[in-house]
Specification:
Elements (H helix, E strand, L loop, with lengths): L6 H4 L14 E11 L38 H13 L3 E2 L2 E2 L2 E4 L9 E4 L6 E2 L2 E6 L2 E14 L3 E3 L8 E3 L6 E7 L6 H17 L12 E10 L9 E6 L2 H20 L7 E6 L4 E7 L3 H4 L2 E2 L6 E2 L2 H9 L5 H12 L3 H7 L3 H12 L4 H19 L10 H12 L5 H13 L5 H7 L8 H14 L1 H8 L5 H12 L6 H12 L1
Parallel strand pairs: 13-14
Antiparallel strand pairs: 1-11, 1-12, 2-6, 3-17, 4-5, 4-16, 6-8, 7-8, 8-11, 9-10, 12-13, 14-15
C-alpha cells in the first residue's frame, strides 16, 4: 500500500454522498499493482516470464547477494510515462527511489525498493460510465516499485517454500482518492483502469497470473460524520471476487458498528470459498516502514523531450476515440464508451463503418445483438463468427428498407451459425424480402383489425399503446416481412 498521502483521514469532505447502505455511506479507495510488460525486471536482467520453475529466474541482484547493485530498467520508466500521459497526470521531471523496510521471508533484502516522497506520476483521473451516468475518480499518484517473492505452502508438509522468481518484477502502484461510493462504482473503476493499462500496452492485465492486482480500502460512516476507520482488502484478482469481497466487507463493518463494536484498522484477505474477509494483520502506517532514500539509486530524471517522444508513439486513447465517435458520428457518450472497451472492439466498429455501415445502426448492433451473443459464449469480438464487413452489409439492408428488424435478426443468426456467409443470398434463401404487395398487406390489416376489437376500441379511446399490439399482430401474420413503420401509418389511417 502507498503510505504517502493518508487521504482517508486528511480528506474529510470528499464527493457528494452516494447511495446509502442501511443508512450508511460507503467510502472506497483503490491501490492497484499493475505489472509492467518489460521482458526483464526493474533493477536486474532476470526474466519476468510467468510459469517458470521456482527460483530459476532470480539472479544475484534479486537474491540480494552481497556486492550487488540495482540498475534502473528504462522500459519500466517509459511505461510509467505512458500511464501518466493516458491519465492526464503530471510526470515528475525528477523523482526519487526509497527503501521500504519490512522483514518477511520472500523479501531477501529486508526492504523493498519503491518511491515515497516524490513519485514519478502525480495526480490525474479515470473517467467511466456506471450505467449511463459518467463518473470520475481522482488519482493521488502512481509510483514505480519492485515486487517481492512468493511464499509456497501447498506442496510442503508442515513447511513453506520461497519462490523468488517474482522478486524484482516491475510494478506501477496506482493510488486513488477515496472517491468511490458503491461496490458497483469501485468495480467499474477497476475495469476502466484495466482497460487503459492493456490498451496502451504497459500491462498484459492477466489477473489470474497476478499481473493486475487490486487492494480496496473500505470504510463506512453515517452521512455527515467524519470518515470511518478503513480496512484494506488485499490482492483482489478478479472482478467477481472484488464485488463479493467489498459487498461482504461493507455488511460486516455495518453490523460491527450496529452491535456497538469499534472497527480496527487492518489488512484483510478475501476467501472466495466462504465469501468472507478475514483479518491478516493490523494495518501499518508509513512510520512502520522507516522509509529513507535508496543510496544505491540516483534520482530518476525524465527530460521533456523523452516525454514528447513517448507521447508521439502513443496509440489513440479510448477516451479520445470515444470523443471522436461522438463528434464525427453523432453517437451518445454512453454508446461511444461501450465501443471503446478494447482496441479490437473499436477496430471492428471502424471496419464496419468503412465498409459502408451507418455508424448509429452499427453501434446498435454491436452493443446489442453482438454483445449479447459474445457474452453468452464468453468470447471476444476477435472471435466473432460475423465479420465487420458482413455486419456492414446487414446494416445497409436494414437502412435501405430491405430488411425489417425481425428479419435482420434471422439473417444475423444465419451468419453467426454459419448457415450462410452472404447477406443478400440469405435474404433470398429465407424469402425475407419485405412485403411489397399492398393488396396482401391491406388484407392482413383488415383481418387483424377484425380479430382484435378490444385493441381497436382502446386505441380509439385514446390509448396509444394499444396500437403496438395491433402492429405486432400484423408483423406476426406477415412473417416479419412487413415494414413496421408502414404498418403503423396504415393502421392509423384505417382506424382514424
Amino acid at each position: 500500500m502507498s503510505e504517502t498521502v493518508n487521504t482517508f483521514e486528511a480528506q474529510q469532505e470528499g464527493r457528494p454522498t452516494g447511495p446509502l447502505v442501511r443508512g450508511y455511506e460507503v467510502i472506497i479507495g483503490f491501490e492497484t499493482h499493475a505489472q509492467l510488460s518489460t521482458a526483464s525486471k526493474i533493477f536486474s536482467r532476470a526474466s519476468t516470464a510467468f510459469g517458470a520453475e521456482p527460483n530459476t529466474q532470480a539472479c544475484a541482484v534479486d537474491l540480494a547477494l552481497p556486492g550487488t547493485l540495482p540498475v534502473m530498467n528504462k522500459g519500466a520508466v517509459e511505461r510509467a510515462i505512458k500511464l501518466g500521459l493516458a491519465l492526464g497526470s503530471h510526470i515528475a521531471p525528477r523523482s526519487v527511489f526509497a527503501r521500504k523496510n519490512y522483514f518477511y521471508p520472500d523479501l531477501p533484502k529486508g526492504y523493498q525498493i519503491s518511491q515515497f516522497e516524490i513519485p514519478v506520476v502525480q495526480g490525474g483521473s479515470v473517467s467511466f460510465f456506471l450505467g449511463e451516468e459518467k463518473k470520475t475518480v481522482r488519482l493521488v499518484r502512481a509510483h514505480l516499485e519492485e515486487d517481492a517473492g512468493k511464499s509456497l505452502h501447498e506442496d510442503f508438509i508442515g513447511q513453506s517454500g520461497i519462490d523468488l522468481n517474482r522478486a524484482g518484477t516491475p510494478l506501477l502502484e496506482i493510488v486513488t482518492e477515496p472517491d468511490m461510493r458503491s461496490t458497483a462504482e469501485a468495480v467499474a473503476y477497476a475495469r476502466e483502469l484495466h482497460k487503459i493499462v492493456t490498451w496502451i500496452g504497459i500491462c498484459d492485465g492477466n489477473m489470474q497470473e497476478g499481473s493486475f492486482r487490486c487492494d480496496a480500502n473500505v470504510s463506512v460512516r453515517r452521512p455527515g460524520e467524519k470518515l470511518g476507520t478503513r480496512r484494506e482488502i488485499k490482492n483482489l484478482n478478479s472482478f467477481k471476487f472484488m464485488q463479493q469481497a467489498i459487498d461482504y466487507e461493507i455488511r460486516w463493518q455495518i453490523e460491527e458498528i450496529e452491535d456497538g463494536r469499534k472497527i480496527e484498522q487492518a489488512t484483510v484477505l478475501f476467501n472466495p470459498d466462504t465469501g468472507e474477509t478475514r483479518a491478516m494483520r493490523a494495518k501499518e502506517d508509513s512510520a512502520d516502514y522507516r522509509y529513507f532514500p535508496d543510496p544505491d539509486l540516483p534520482p530518476l530524471v525524465i527530460a521533456a523531450d523523452w516525454i514528447e517522444r513517448v507521447r508521439s508513439e502513443m496509440p489513440e486513447l479510448p477516451r479520445a476515440m470515444a470523443e471522436r465517435y461522438v463528434s464525427d458520428y453523432g453517437l451518445s457518450e454512453y454508446d461511444a464508451a461501450q465501443l471503446t472497451q478494447s482496441p479490437s472492439l473499436a477496430r471492428y466498429f471502424d471496419d464496419a463503418v468503412k465498409a459502408g455501415a451507418t455508424p448509429k445502426l452499427a453501434s446498435n448492433w454491436i452493443t446489442g445483438e453482438m454483445a449479447r451473443r459474445l457474452n453468452a459464449q464468453e468470447i471476444g469480438i476477435e472471435a466473432a463468427p460475423v465479420s465487420a464487413q458482413q455486419l456492414a452489409q446487414l446494416v445497409q439492408r436494414v437502412a435501405d428498407g430491405t430488411l425489417p428488424n425481425n428479419a435482420a435478426r434471422q439473417v444475423f443468426d444465419a451468419l453467426w451459425t454459419g448457415d450462410g456467409s452472404d447477406v443478400d443470398a440469405i435474404i433470398e434463401a429465407k424469402d425475407l424480402k419485405p412485403m411489397n404487395d399492398t393488396g396482401a398487406l391491406d388484407k392482413i390489416l383488415d383481418e387483424v383489425i377484425a380479430k382484435n376489437q378490444k385493441n381497436v376500441d382502446e386505441y380509439r379511446a385514446g390509448k396509444e399503446k394499444a396500437l403496438n399490439g395491433l402492429v405486432g399482430q400484423v408483423m406476426k401474420a406477415s412473417g416479419g416481412k412487413a415494414n413496421p413503420a408502414q404498418v403503423t401509418e396504415l393502421l392509423k389511417a384505417k382506424l382514424a
